[in-house]
Amino acid sequence: SLNNFLKAGSKSYMALVDSVSSGTQLGLRECQEQFKWERWNCPLKQSVLRPFNARVQADTVTKEISFGQAITCAGVAHTITKNCSSGEFENCRCDESKKGKKGGRTWKWGGCSDNLRFGERVSKLFFDDRVAATDAMATVNLHNNEVGRTALKKTMELICKCHGVSGSCTTKTCWQHLSDFRSVGTFLKRCYARAIDVDFQNGALQQTATRRHRRDRSELIRKTDLVYLQTSPDYCRVNGSYATLGRQCVRSSAAAKSGRRNRHPERKSCHRLCKACGLKVTDKVVEVTSSCKCKFKWCCEVACQQCRRKVELSTCTL
Asked: Does the keyword Cell inner membrane apply (predicted)?
């Protein structure tokens, strides 16, 4: 249990804190990847990710900040769970609570399931236990924290091993495994796309009147619904400055030549990031170096050459 883990001493607690820090960085990297081609791209200077529930004004909780809050908690829970399963913590093991129980007609629980419950408890310890849901901002943050942790549950994978004569697979033993974090980020990005504008009334979150026209008024806010309090700005300018100045983009013609689908987020990114924000698009050719022509050498080494190639970059400029 978490209590036993914390009793193990300060060394164990420090290992936990290090994993929380790594999980926060995991969330930040995934946030930046998911918003790579959008005007808001998880800028560090705006303190997007808020570990330990740093206080912010309620009127700044846009759906982008809500996404940042959710993916931070997801990143921490994911990292803690993985580290627990890999044996990096004392007094922390696989989740065997279902082991031996029947899971379906031809399979039963077994193996070494990732201990997501432990990861969730640590995430709550560092994010939820430090704030009480007494105002709009706190209540929204706590809800979005839970959305992040729910994303881990929704994207878990069922791994099975067959048993039977000559691989007949008459029965199977199965266990749950965390998916890669990109799947979690993609799940949360879909939650972001349908995020709900809410009000804080009588100590609870309620959908705004505008939202109720699109959804059943009696419908409850679900654990997969990201919520926010303020409509997002266009993010072209921040404090009077061009927010997308210097950002790289991909011209529509380049995206089409590469064979990407029309709905790929890179497509029209130059228009979205540059032209629509009053900036120009400047193209330049640069030389990049990368590993290539790699060969396996006995035993056990991989030798690569360094190859140079020229690429064209498009950038938002004045």
From this structure: no
